[in-house]
Amino acid sequence: xxxxxxxxxxxxxRPTMSHPTNLEIDVLRSFVAGVQLNSFAxxxxxxxxSQSAVSLHLRKLEQQTGQVLFRKxxxxxxxxxxxxxxLRYAQKLINLNDEALSAVAGDDVSGRVRVGxxxxxxETWLPDLLxxxxxxxxxxxxxxxVERNAVLLEALDAGALDVALFWCxxxxxxxxxxxxxxxxxxVWIVPAGFAPDDQARLPLVLMGAPCLFAAKAIAAxxxxxxxxxxxxxxxxxxxxxxxxxxxxxxxxxxxxxxxxGLHILASGGLPELxxxxxxxxxxxxxxxxxxxxxxxxxATVAAxxxxxxxxxAPNVGRAFA
Length: 321
Fold this sequence. Notes:
Layout: H1 4-13, H2 25-37, H3 40-47, H4 51-65, E1 70-73, E2 76-79, H5 81-105, E3 111-117, H6 119-122, H7 126-136, E4 140-146, H8 149-157, E5 163-169, H9 172-175, E6 179-185, E7 187-191, E8 202-207, H10 212-224, E9 228-234, H11 237-245, E10 251-253, E11 262-264, E12 275-282, H12 288-303, E13 311-312
Helix pairs in contact: 2-3, 2-4, 2-5, 3-4, 5-7, 7-12
């Protein structure tokens, strides 16, 4: 039981109604970045502060809230229930702060933004991105085009897009122009209860050519000597998910947009597939509205929920830091 003295000390740490505590945005930013990157050393680099400064921010948050925000679990740290609650509110407060600054700075921004992005992002980041941009720049029209890499890059080169996000796999990512936003592991995605049969040809559900992920899967299987067969192809990611849900076979993608009910195969004798990098390219001399869209896009990437094995590139999202 907590003694009277301990209870009094605990109460003394909590903010009182007569003196409300104001949470600082830069302190919350350190907290959120550390959780999302699963490393406060990497968070320090991302937000441009020393690791000791980030540690001070975390101690300050615990003092201000009167709660323990992290618990030790093995070699790592995990959020307590209080930490999970604070994380949800911290993300909202940071977003509101950034949107307020963007709205004030962008009062005279108008025109349109034509953005192209792969289907993975349309299912995950696009709703939040569009909402944040519309609240900050309500007079700017946005045209979104969801396509595969080759189509998006051709449209950008032809002047039909202002900005494009696209995937690069392996060493190809270092050869492409544009800015690195994030990296993700490439994983095997399977229906519930799937167990690969070493004696049977692996049933593949893949996007039709040209598809970097399909080519990567086939090359890895053939290099490892694993037999395979194509059982379903689709031009849309929703078609791929439907086929996996129907237990027709397996596919490869990043963990970014795996629907509920499907699983990432942690082991099972299938070959390793490496990593995919997400890059951004903009047309030459982007307008102010396009640049503001890119700023908010990068802030959205930096604030997105973390994905196991992912890495946000340094300085992404720093426009609002």
